[in-house]
Amino acid sequence: MPASAKRGLSGALPGLRRTLHRFRHQVAAERKLILVGLLALFAEVALRLLEPWPLAYVIDAIVAATGADLATRGAPVPGIPGVAHLTVLLIICAAALVGVVALRAGAAYLMTVCFALAGNRVLTRVRTELYGHLNRLSLRFHESRRTGDLVTRVTGDIGRLQEATVTAAIPLAGNVITLAGMFVVIVIMDWQLALAVAVVFPLFLLIGGRLTRKINSVSRGQREAEGALASLATESLGAMPVVQSYALESRLEQRFGGSSERTLADGVRAKKLSAGLERKTDVLVGLATGVVLLLGGHRVLAGALTPGELTVFLTYLKTAFRPLRDIAKYTGRIAKAAASGERIVDLLDTRPEIVDAPWARPAPRFRGLIEFRDVVFGYRPGRPVLKGLNLIIPPGRRVALVGPSGAGKSSIAGLLSRLRDPDAGQVLIDGRDLRDLTLDSARSQVAVVLQDSVLFADTIRANIAFGAPDVYGDGRPVGEEWIRWAARLAGADQFIQALPQGYDTVIGERGATLSGGQRQRIAIARAAIRNAPIVILDEAMTGLDPGTEAEVAAALRRLTEGRTTLVITHDLDAARDADLVFWIDEGRVVRAGTPTAVFDHPTDPRALSLSKGRVR
Ligand SMILES: Nc1ncnc2c1ncn2[C@@H]1O[C@H](COP(=O)(O)OP(=O)(O)OP(=O)(O)O)[C@@H](O)[C@H]1O
């Protein structure tokens, strides 16, 4: 947990500084707006300081007039040169008051709009950067993090920063500047009375500080419970078939309910504490007002202060101290925002493991010669999955990788797509180490069809187009004719056209509204549009019913025609169809050759199991 979440505002400062430093370029881009906002802020504070003065003049004038002679109304006002009549003074003061209030409202509006706009612009850019960065982070990173937590950072944490800028940072800055300004004015007016007010201030800081820390600590507990809630909801809602088929509904509901109750209890405690703080502040303001009334009254009688000035004093007290009762709210929000900022900066500072080496060059179009040279690779240190793997696949050949579950076949595919890098040894395509090539140029030449192809909740057209590399180099979408071509190749065109909205049909999340065979054919179209010289089929036929199996098999056949193809399969027939078979066991090639050599003349007794059907 970031330090800022542990201690109130002072603990939040390093986090805020780090966040601001990280986003300084984005903030600098909005400097014009921020400057206008700051000018408006100072204007607003100055006008707030001016606001009670017309009233003070009126009171002094009335007191002077009524004190001298009630009947002298209309006569020159003593002590205020240039204003001949009390009525004129009243009109001027009233107009001034209206003018000050109207100008203040205008300045406050301008300030809020400028800061809100600048904040939103900065954070919208940060959010896009964060999302893009997450997409580039390595699989190892994503496997170690909960999706719900990452989603919360992209949405909730950015939202919290946005909210805190407008609803806490700006009012807090405004109030602090106002407080300082008012204090300067009252010191100039009567330093002795100002001193009396200043005595109440530390008392306020003491009570406020203690309660604020408590409120922040309770709110933190609430936020943690909310995070757990979000993670649980994201995970279970994303795995609805598992939830329902295992009848997990009530158990999950119970867990969700438990976390939910916790957020409620913490929420209620935080509300009670902040309501208590507000009331205590009210009492303190009352105390300060009482002191000023008592001492101020004496000062007026002694002639050291005019009644109007005493009114200004009292008004300042009310205006300055009232917002301080919201201090817990502001500091709480700012501490939360600092924690959110740190969570975002932490993510942005996480470097992807798989990146372009400084010497990496764009790959030319591959012929498709694949070589694994003494490859050692594991997911966890000290536990290699591939233990010195060697294999060569000639270009344009269809190769089957078979072997028991957990042997490392999918890991080979992952290395070939450069989702991961080997711990030792080399993966080469056309004789070039993948690490010497730029990621995009190498990955765009490998198409993958998995068993459970993930489709996005978008139109069928967009789902197919996702497969296309950036053909024009400027992000322009691929042409309609290519999408149709890919769909025809995948044997999907017919059923897509039969849908009411055709290619514009929006499919459910993860392709939930399509049958398994249909989903797979769209995934094949998505792979086809890549026009990649290397194709990986990882159990692409597993789990389909016999009716669709033939269609998908034909589509896969068309997809892989003339391309180097890696077929990872447990299905003997599919393996027999290959030019070459590599039998992988415990991270090594234990047998290689034509299907006949591997399956029909096995020298290794374990290979017998292969010839009997499926590889277990
Ligand atoms: N993301 C991961 N994190 C940690 N371990 C993993 C990960 N993926 C795979 N493994 C482990 O690595 C080993 C090899 O897995 P891999 O998926 O490459 O095998 P496979 O031969 O493709 O198996 P299957 O035929 O069941 O798909 C297994 O022991 C597996 O548990």
UniProtKB/TrEMBL annotation:
<comment type="similarity">
    <text>Belongs to the ABC transporter superfamily. Siderophore-Fe(3+) uptake transporter (SIUT) (TC 3.A.1.21) family.</text>
</comment>
<keyword id="KW-0997">Cell inner membrane</keyword>
<dbReference type="GO" id="GO:0005524">
    <property type="term" value="F:ATP binding"/>
</dbReference>
<dbReference type="Pfam" id="PF00664">
    <property type="entry name" value="ABC_membrane"/>
</dbReference>
<feature type="transmembrane region" description="Helical">
    <location>
        <begin position="168"/>
        <end position="188"/>
    </location>
</feature>
<keyword id="KW-0813">Transport</keyword>
<keyword id="KW-1003">Cell membrane</keyword>
<dbReference type="GO" id="GO:0016887">
    <property type="term" value="F:ATP hydrolysis activity"/>
</dbReference>
<keyword id="KW-1133">Transmembrane helix</keyword>
<dbReference type="Pfam" id="PF00005">
    <property type="entry name" value="ABC_tran"/>
</dbReference>
<feature type="domain" description="ABC transporter">
    <location>
        <begin position="370"/>
        <end position="611"/>
    </location>
</feature>
<dbReference type="InterPro" id="IPR003439">
    <property type="entry name" value="ABC_transporter-like_ATP-bd"/>
</dbReference>
<dbReference type="InterPro" id="IPR017871">
    <property type="entry name" value="ABC_transporter-like_CS"/>
</dbReference>
<feature type="transmembrane region" description="Helical">
    <location>
        <begin position="194"/>
        <end position="212"/>
    </location>
</feature>
<dbReference type="InterPro" id="IPR036640">
    <property type="entry name" value="ABC1_TM_sf"/>
</dbReference>
<keyword id="KW-0472">Membrane</keyword>
<feature type="domain" description="ABC transmembrane type-1">
    <location>
        <begin position="35"/>
        <end position="336"/>
    </location>
</feature>
<dbReference type="GO" id="GO:0034040">
    <property type="term" value="F:ATPase-coupled lipid transmembrane transporter activity"/>
</dbReference>
<dbReference type="InterPro" id="IPR011527">
    <property type="entry name" value="ABC1_TM_dom"/>
</dbReference>
<keyword id="KW-0067">ATP-binding</keyword>
<feature type="transmembrane region" description="Helical">
    <location>
        <begin position="88"/>
        <end position="118"/>
    </location>
</feature>
<feature type="transmembrane region" description="Helical">
    <location>
        <begin position="33"/>
        <end position="50"/>
    </location>
</feature>
<protein>
    <submittedName>
        <fullName>ATP-binding cassette subfamily B protein</fullName>
    </submittedName>
</protein>
<dbReference type="InterPro" id="IPR027417">
    <property type="entry name" value="P-loop_NTPase"/>
</dbReference>
<keyword id="KW-0547">Nucleotide-binding</keyword>
<dbReference type="GO" id="GO:0005886">
    <property type="term" value="C:plasma membrane"/>
</dbReference>
<dbReference type="GO" id="GO:0140359">
    <property type="term" value="F:ABC-type transporter activity"/>
</dbReference>
<dbReference type="InterPro" id="IPR003593">
    <property type="entry name" value="AAA+_ATPase"/>
</dbReference>
<dbReference type="InterPro" id="IPR039421">
    <property type="entry name" value="Type_1_exporter"/>
</dbReference>
<keyword id="KW-0812">Transmembrane</keyword>
